[in-house]
Amino acid sequence: MGRATGLVIAAALLGALLPGSALAEKAGVVRTESFRLLNEGVAAYKRGEYVKAVDSLRRSAAMALNSFRAHYYLGLALSGDRRYEEAVEALTVALDLDPTHLQAHVARGDAFLKLGDTGEAMAEYYRAIKLRPEFPPALDGIARVHEAMADDEKAIRFFERSIASNRGYADAYTHLGDLYLRLNRIDEAVRLLAEAVSIRPDFAPGLNRLALAYGQLGLANQAVATIRKAIELQPNVAEHHATLGRIQLGLELVANAETAFMQALGLDPAHPGALEGLAEVSRRRGEYDAAFGYLDTALGDERIEPRIAQRLTEFRAVLEAEQARLIALEQRVADGTATPADHRALARVYVDRADWETALEYQRGAPAEPADRELLAFLLFKTGRYRDAHGVFAGLARDAGRADLELNDGVTLSLLGDHAGALEAYGRALAIEPDNSLALLYRGNALMRLGRDGDAVVAYKAFLDRGGFGEDEERVRRILEQIAPGAVPVRPPLFPDAPPAPELPVGDEDEEGAGS
């Protein structure tokens, strides 16, 4: 007997126990209340208030046993609250009631994927494909399964198929962009994620990932503005606040990051990303016991995804080893037995904690090897000692003949106001690596500051021709539009060979919530 059939029989048995008029009156009251709870639950789900949504939808489903929408949205809300096993159960009931509902198959596959069950997830996505060939959310799900199985090449192919099936399906752009972020193909990631939010300007998950991509590119203002827009769209989603915290950590705004992570925990008290972020905040302050406490709280949550649990377990092991190493090294310093190699090791511990001043203090006592001198120059730069940093970078660049060292020296000279010296350093970098995009960009900046606009246009166009990207690209395009109208190269399309395809049906609220 199917589960839906059993529910119908149970309802019939209940009816046999009540008189006709009483039954009709009771049924009307129940239907009205169930409908009210359903609407209340769906609204809460769409606001990101998953706990409230689960409560309302569970009560609605208990009153309307044969309501597909109650069980479907209950599954989505449970997934939103990271209760994936329960989500699978609710979505199983929904599919018993409507076996052909495409998004319910995709949502059930998503829940299985979060549980780490790639086999069941793949089977569910293919059930949707059988119902509608080339269904974009199902192709996107298959791609995510391949990614979870470490088959990135096949994942990319399926993501691209999903995009080709519906050029307006923003989720596939977002997930492929996320994969490129992991592969450190940052420029490609930014293009895809920017396209996702261009297609759907109110697509908060795409804005979230785009903000992370901007953060990895060092585009601080754009990263913060983008994630704040996601928060504005979905203020009750903890993930957006946790992402703001990650970006602020990258900007070394530790107190601000801590506030963002605490706001995320206010929405989801066991959010693993927020707890991981607070562990990193504690690490940077040298509060290792507090860091372990945050990680243990996250790992103790039965809802945690296996892949996240593995990452946090590995992070905890790193912190344990770091703490033990730090205690031993600082004891040697206190005893007066520390060697130059010990000072190097201590400096690197504090570099990992982004404590640049303490790292510099220890690095000054490290050996004078080239790698140690590079770290010394970097730390002098990070602590604002630009003249000293220039002296070290210039010597290293002369000795090694490396473009990156010339580039670093040029940036340092620029901060000292020596734009002519910076221009010479960028020229030396380009003599070593003619296609170095950053050297072309910074050369253009130096030429502009020296009033040589015509030469700057040449450098900027070369930067764009070699794939300049992100905030820097937009800034360069705006500069060129002002000083050389008509000189701005046209961007190539993302998928020039992908044929346009009909959009998915819109307006059916039962189609929402899957594929994220």
How are the SSEs ordered, and which strands pair?
Elements: H1 3-16, H2 20-46, H3 50-63, H4 68-80, H5 84-97, H6 102-114, H7 118-131, H8 136-148, H9 152-165, H10 170-182, H11 186-199, H12 204-216, H13 220-233, H14 238-250, H15 254-267, H16 272-284, H17 288-299, H18 306-335, H19 340-352, H20 356-363, H21 370-382, H22 386-400, H23 403-415, H24 419-432, H25 437-449, H26 453-465, H27 470-483
Helix pairs in contact: 2-3, 2-4, 3-4, 4-5, 4-6, 5-6, 6-7, 6-8, 7-8, 8-9, 8-10, 9-10, 10-11, 10-12, 11-12, 12-13, 12-14, 13-14, 14-15, 14-16, 15-16, 16-17, 17-18, 18-19, 19-20, 20-21, 21-22, 22-23, 23-24, 23-25, 24-25, 25-26, 26-27
Counting helices, strands and paired strands, the structural category is mainly alpha
Looking at the structure, what is the overall shape? globular
Ends distance:
33 Å
| Gyration radius over CA | 28 Å
Number of strands: 0
Strand content: under 5%
Mean of the pLDDT scores?
88
SS element count, helices: 27
Q: Can you give the helix content as a percent range?
A: over 70%
SSE succession: HHHHHHHHHHHHHHHHHHHHHHHHHHH
List unreliable stretches of 5+ residues.
Answer: 1-15, 498-516
The main β sheet shows up as:
none
Question: What's this model, at a glance?
Answer:
With 516 residues, this protein is mainly alpha-helical. The protein has helices at residues 3-16, 20-46, 50-63, 68-80, 84-97, 102-114, 118-131, 136-148, 152-165, 170-182, 186-199, 204-216, 220-233, 238-250, 254-267, 272-284, 288-299, 306-335, 340-352, 356-363, 370-382, 386-400, 403-415, 419-432, 437-449, 453-465, 470-483.
